[in-house]
């Protein structure tokens, strides 16, 4: 059959990024060859590597590519702490108005954790809140950061969460907030969520204060289905929840807007193990699965997911971070072999 070709902007990133990206591309192309999907990868650097080559942390050509292709797959890019250039992730989200950060948290078969059977989703507002980056030094020794919450931003992330719940049969949404203290900003977020909730009577709507949510998650994550959050709370809770299923090396992420989407692993660039064939590509690979669903390639997505789950269930070709002894390349080859054996 004639393959359908998708143009995808690819940002390998730095640290372990190029290694996990190479592995993921290999698996995606192998799956696509079997299902009639082909990919035209447009590859660009970002961050310090891009600056060294082009004098820009995000080259104009990368912006143009994402705008034209409308979909990107991005490996981890190092963000300097307390100085240096602005976060590449945050900059791209704001540039393309990728207002919804979508992170499913679900256990993989065969991988033992303290919380088996977790299946929850985080819908995080992705462009506002303290991450708007509006910081000023008021006077020497006093810095200020502005928390920005808008009716538009709050309403559209709530609508995205409820639409997803209705489409996929999810039964419950919790809005996460600190409106007992931040009565105007978090209060506005809750007001918008409540209004949206009235249009979805089939979805149970609840609210939890963010600090209580952290305790409740550790005590009993099974009480949650979808968490609807502002930007900062969602970032923190996403990392907390990743521990339920084995850590950040496993959890996928999607940044969704009306025009474009960027899919990325949520972990860092791990420069200490870069170039050693030790990195786990699962997070970026499962992000690619989300990307394939977005591209309306469900057969390719499901083929890869089945391959991932088969490798984890067998447990013989896993990377060190999840108790195995295999490397990045061997894991990728095992996923491909599992896909082929299931055909």
UniProtKB/TrEMBL annotation:
The keyword Oxidoreductase applies. Keywords: Oxidoreductase. Residues 7-335 form the Isopropylmalate dehydrogenase-like domain. One of its GO terms (molecular function) is magnesium ion binding. One of its GO terms (biological process) is isocitrate metabolic process. Its EC number is 1.1.1.41. It is an enzyme of class 1 (oxidoreductase). This is Isocitrate dehydrogenase (NAD+). It comes from Granulicella arctica.
């Amino acid at each position: 059959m004639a393959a359908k070709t998708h143009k995808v902007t690819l940002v390998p990133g730095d640290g372990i990024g190029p290694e996990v990206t190479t592995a993921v591309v290999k698996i995606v192309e192998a799956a696509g060859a079997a299902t009639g999907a082909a990919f035209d990868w447009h590859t660009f650097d970002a961050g310090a590597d891009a600056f060294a080559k082009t004098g820009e942390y995000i080259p104009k050509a990368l912006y143009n590519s994402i705008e034209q292709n409308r979909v990107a797959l991005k490996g981890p890019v190092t963000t300097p702490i307390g100085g240096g250039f602005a976060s590449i992730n945050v900059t791209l989200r704001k540039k393309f108005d990728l207002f919804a950060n979508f992170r499913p948290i679900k256990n993989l078969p065969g991988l033992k954790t303290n919380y088996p059977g977790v299946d929850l989703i985080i819908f995080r507002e992705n462009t506002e809140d303290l991450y708007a980056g509006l910081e000023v030094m008021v006077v020497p020794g006093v810095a200020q950061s502005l928390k920005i919450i808008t009716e538009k931003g709050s309403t559209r992330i709530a609508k995205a969460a409820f639409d997803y719940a209705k489409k996929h049969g999810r039964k419950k949404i919790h809005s996460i907030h600190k409106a007992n203290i931040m009565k105007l900003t978090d209060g506005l977020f809750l007001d918008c969520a409540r209004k949206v909730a009235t249009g979805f009577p089939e979805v149970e709507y609840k609210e939890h204060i963010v600090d209580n949510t952290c305790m409740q998650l550790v005590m009993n994550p099974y009480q949650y289905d979808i968490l609807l959050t502002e930007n900062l709370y969602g970032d923190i809770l996403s990392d907390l929840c990743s521990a339920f299923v084995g850590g950040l090396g496993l959890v996928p992420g999607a940044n969704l807007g009306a025009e474009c989407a960027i899919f990325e692993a949520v972990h860092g660039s791990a420069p200490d193990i870069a170039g050693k064939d030790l990195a786990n590509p699962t997070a970026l690979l499962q992000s690619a699965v989300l990307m394939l669903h977005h591209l309306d390639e469900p057969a390719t997505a499901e083929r890869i997911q089945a391959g991932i789950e088969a490798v984890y269930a067998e447990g013989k070709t896993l990377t060190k971070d999840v108790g195995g002894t295999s490397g990045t390349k061997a894991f990728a080859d095992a996923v491909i072999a599992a896909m082929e054996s299931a055909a």
